[in-house]
Specification:
Number of domains: 2
CATH topology of the largest domain: TIM Barrel
CATH class of the largest domain: Alpha Beta
Number of helices: 11
Bound molecules: adenosine monophosphate, fe (iii) ion, zinc ion
Structural class: alpha/beta
Largest sheet: 6 strands, mixed
Shape: globular
Radius of gyration: 18 Å
Number of strands: 10
CATH architecture of the largest domain: Alpha-Beta Barrel
Strand order of the largest sheet: 6-4-5-7-8-9
Helix content: 40-55%
CATH superfamily of the largest domain: Metal-dependent hydrolases
Strand content: 15-25%
Amino acid sequence: MFADLHLHTNFSDGTYTPEELASHGKRHGLAAMALTDHDTVEGCARMGVACESQEIEFLSGTELTAEVNGNELHLLGYCVDLENKKLLTEVARFQAVRQNRIREMVVRLNKMNVPLQAEAVFKIANCRSPGRPHVARALVQAGFCSSLDEAFERYLKANRPGWVPKCKMSAFDAIALVHQAGGAVVMAHPGLNRTDDVIPELVQAGLDGIECFHSKHSASTSRYYLEIAEHHHLLVTGGSDCHGMNKGKPLIGSVKIPYQHVEKLKERAAEWKAGAVRTQPVS
Ligand code: AMP
Ligand code: FE
Ligand code: FE
Ligand code: ZN
């Protein structure tokens, strides 16, 4: 039995609906799937229903955009209570920040003589948690760029003229936020963010796991993080980070982790739900 614990839908910057994602999961023989849309849990209710109808186990989730010492990192929150007030309030605040950022990016593009309108981006995004991929799609649709890659290369990548830095949650606040919502916290794709030096501090703050397996991790990167996980007694997770058709080819099916990792993750979340105050083992 295998799982994919890192997936996006059109509730953030993925292109699949929850129903489409669940049916692709079935096709790839997944026994369990977690939805981890950026700064939202809005798609989880529908994804839960869609997975049930495909006889796939569903884990609620979100991918929080966080920072530590000015460096961006993504924290995955799993098995969170979808009704948790504090979690819903905080993600709503970051969704408003994302929407304002879209407006700012459009202002910058307009100054570059690219007359894109914010409304065109919001219409394409059609969700509360819009991001740069939606701006890229709007640029392509309006004929200002010929591909999503070109949109990122010319305008949207860090330090390009249309780029606006994102206001992020402190990683320590994000960890506490997920725990109080009854979830377990996992550092996403560490091989992409390379914030390894802060892992000990995050472990002290209660980080539960590390995403060792990811579609952009090489075998040696995965091995490297498996060692780090073992050293700090962290849980191991993994997922494809599929965004649907966003990046040309859907990534679902490219990363499948053994079901035993799902069991451990659920056990840890159950401990947080029971109000456990974990003391971190000394490593
Ligand atoms: P944002 O959260 O608005 O900063 O956008 C980040 C998202 O943009 C990531 O989750 C990726 O899905 C996507 N992304 C980042 N860089 C690129 C790129 N060069 N080409 C295509 N998509 C990208
Ligand atoms: Fe994304
Ligand atoms: Fe990410
Ligand atoms: Zn992701």
